[in-house]
Design a protein that fits this description.
Blueprint lengths: L2 E7 L2 E7 L4 E4 L7 H8 L4 E5 L5 H4 L2 H8 L3 E3 L16 E2 L1 H17 L8 E3 L13 E5 L8 E5 L3 E5 L2 E2 L5 E2 L2 E2 L2 H13 L4 E4 L8
Parallel strand pairs: 3-4, 4-5, 5-7, 10-14
Antiparallel strand pairs: 1-2, 2-3, 6-13, 8-9, 9-10, 11-12
């Protein structure tokens, strides 16, 4: 049975999914959390990094950690354009919480340029991660970005990136590039039934 380790780096969350032999890292946090993420990953045999999407707070350490451990970085090809320009998928928000978070996010999104990993592999909805030693499946969760993905671990734990968030309480992600798509992704997560949800931002819940 795989274990999920929550690595909290300020308001950013990263997760190590591991069993007795192998581990993958889901999201890498921003540069400020690099040392903490590196220290935790160094305790495992790392096989893969998965980016739920390539905004800096999820992906800024991806290239460096990929090189450090000699492992590939998996993401959805629909988000490749974001490495060059976040404005290709501008973010909007709903509600007071969303407006506050978006206001705090716009400046770093504008000013932070992240390095594109060299060892990229592209994944899509339904792809298995068994070749990396972990019983998990990629789940397409577009809406925050066009290529946002999640990771469903053993039909028990679901890492959702920013498709949902838990700033105050669990909710559809407050920041989106496509409102209809992110609402549909939230509905899809709900339809899966009982899961422990691990958010890109906020404390994991058993809802």
């Amino acid at each position: 049975m795989a274990e999920i380790q929550w690595i909290k780096c300020g308001t950013d969350n990263c997760y190590i999914v591991s069993n007795e032999e192998n581990a993958i890292l889901v999201d890498t946090g921003s540069a400020a959390g690099y040392d903490k993420v590196l220290a935790e990953c160094s305790k495992h045999k790392m096989r893969l990094i998965v980016l739920t999407h390539p905004h800096f707070d999820h992906a800024e350490n991806a290239a460096t950690l990929s090189e450090k451990f000699g492992i590939p970085v998996a993401m959805n090809v629909d988000d490749m354009e974001l490495f060059d320009n976040y404005n290709t998928q501008p973010l909007k928000s709903y509600g007071l919480v969303g407006k506050i978070v978006l206001g705090l996010s716009l400046k770093p999104l504008k000013n932070t340029k992240i390095r594109k990993p060299q060892n990229l592999v592209f994944v899509k909805d339904g792809d298995s991660l068994a070749e990396y030693g972990i019983d998990a499946t990629i789940l397409g969760l577009p809406g925050h970005t066009k290529g946002s993905i999640g990771v469903d671990v053993e039909g028990r734990d679901l890492l959702v990136g920013d498709a949902l968030d838990n700033w105050i309480k669990p909710a559809t992600g407050h920041l989106y590039s496509d409102l209809t798509a992110i609402q549909e992704s939230a509905d899809r997560i709900k339809s899966l039934g009982n899961r422990t949800i691990y958010y890109g931002h906020g404390k994991p819940t058993n809802i």
